[in-house]
Amino acid sequence: MFKRMAQTIICRYAIGIISAVLLTACAQLPLPADSSPQAPLESSCGNVLEFYTAVSRLSDLSQEEVLQALRADVVENNEACSQLRLALMLRRPGMAYQDDEAALNLLAIILHDFIESQHPARSLALLLVEEIDERNRLRATGHALQQRLKQGRSTAAVLRRQLEALRSQLEQLKSIEQDINEKERASVGANLNPETDREPHEPK
After folding, report:
1. Rounded-to-integer distance, Cα 68 and Cα 201, Å
2. Is residue 73 within 8 Å of residue 7, measured between CB atoms?
């Protein structure tokens, strides 16, 4: 059942690709000088966001099937819309198949192929590149903060051990000082004892 659903989705958007070919052919017809049409994304690659929403609702197994179908289509046809959908899936956070590097490679191909074009895929590709870069930057920042926190905790643990060592040394010094004071008091007491100060006299 899941495989049929995946095939249905791919077929549905294959129709969009065919429509794009027809629209491209029509776009080559001469237009009035004041005409400046902006091709919507839907007219070129189908509704990519609708595709993403539909795929997101599938089970993990069905998503894997759609992913494999897209990969096969990209290898066979090397077509921008399939590349865009595949990149959109690969950059999806939290999925087992998430691969930001592969997504960026696909988006780089689209941006290179349409470097001087107003192809709608280019606009979305730029947005996806910025989104992936920003997410990676935030991830790197979070990792750096975690490392700093870990280092801070390690430093705090070392300082606690040093503090405990100093306290132990202080207690030892107090004990030594107390022993010295007791010995000094005992020595002073012995010197003041009259029995020890009296000298013996010879009998007359």
Report:
1. 120
2. no
Whether the pTM exceeds 0.70: the reply is: no
Rounded to whole angstroms, the Cα distance separating 170 from 153 reads 25
Tell me, what DSSP letter sits at residue 73? H
CA-based nearest residue to 98, from 139, 143, 50: 139
Q: Which two tokens stand for residue 151?
A: 């280092």
Report the interhelical angle of 80-90 vs 60-77 (nearest 10°).
150
Mean pLDDT of successive 10-residue segments in the chain (204 residues)?
Answer: 49 44 36 37 66 89 92 88 90 88 91 73 86 89 88 89 90 88 78 58 56
What is the distance between the alpha carbons of residues 186 and 202, in angstroms, rounded to a whole number?
A: 31
Question: How far apart (Å, rounded) are the C-alpha atoms in residues 136 and 138?
Answer: 5
d(CA 139, CA 169): 45
Q: Give the residue ranges of DSSP H helices in the chain.
A: 2-27, 41-45, 48-56, 60-77, 80-90, 100-113, 120-191, 194-197
Q: How far apart are CA 167 and CA 164, in angstroms?
A: 5
Buried b (16+ CB within 10 A) or exposed e, 109-126: bbeeebeeeebbbbebbe
